[in-house]
Amino acid sequence: MSTPHLRKLLRYRAWADELIYDAVAALPEGASTAPRATIFGNMLRTLSHSWVVDDIFQAHLQGRVHGYTSRNTPEPLPFDELRSRQQAMNGWYLEYASALTPAQAAEVVTFQFIGGGEGRMSREEMVLHVVNHATYHRGFVADMFYQVPVKPPATDLPVFLRDAPQE
């Protein structure tokens, strides 16, 4: 996968995250933390999980220990703090991918999965994973919007390509 393609996917991810965070911020008080029939229990915990996985894979890419024993924080971070962390993380991934040479992008990194077992992924596969993972969980958050009931924003790639300035 080319660096320009990774950058486009990461710009898409940051754009879609901004739409979701803006929409969550506009919800009625308590809607983002209200119990929902979903794996992480509510919108905020789902967004927190996405950020934690980004943090874990950032550690793998940097060759450092991440210290997590779970794929989420013990308690959800406050919304504004989580949003700020996600924005910074999205910026880090974009900068990281922009600096990768083709040889670095193809380099395989080994790591331990939190649930056990050894993982092996190239650096570009890790970047692709965090983009795909966030898309998957934004879908969960979008579903929870209907439970409020509020219509979620459209965060599909074709909408990004139509609405967001492209390089």
From TrEMBL:
<dbReference type="InterPro" id="IPR034660">
    <property type="entry name" value="DinB/YfiT-like"/>
</dbReference>
<protein>
    <submittedName>
        <fullName>Damage-inducible protein DinB</fullName>
    </submittedName>
</protein>
<feature type="binding site">
    <location>
        <position position="137"/>
    </location>
    <ligand>
        <name>a divalent metal cation</name>
    </ligand>
</feature>
<keyword id="KW-0479">Metal-binding</keyword>
<dbReference type="InterPro" id="IPR007837">
    <property type="entry name" value="DinB"/>
</dbReference>
<dbReference type="Pfam" id="PF05163">
    <property type="entry name" value="DinB"/>
</dbReference>
<comment type="similarity">
    <text>Belongs to the DinB family.</text>
</comment>
<dbReference type="GO" id="GO:0046872">
    <property type="term" value="F:metal ion binding"/>
</dbReference>
<feature type="binding site">
    <location>
        <position position="133"/>
    </location>
    <ligand>
        <name>a divalent metal cation</name>
    </ligand>
</feature>
<feature type="binding site">
    <location>
        <position position="49"/>
    </location>
    <ligand>
        <name>a divalent metal cation</name>
    </ligand>
</feature>
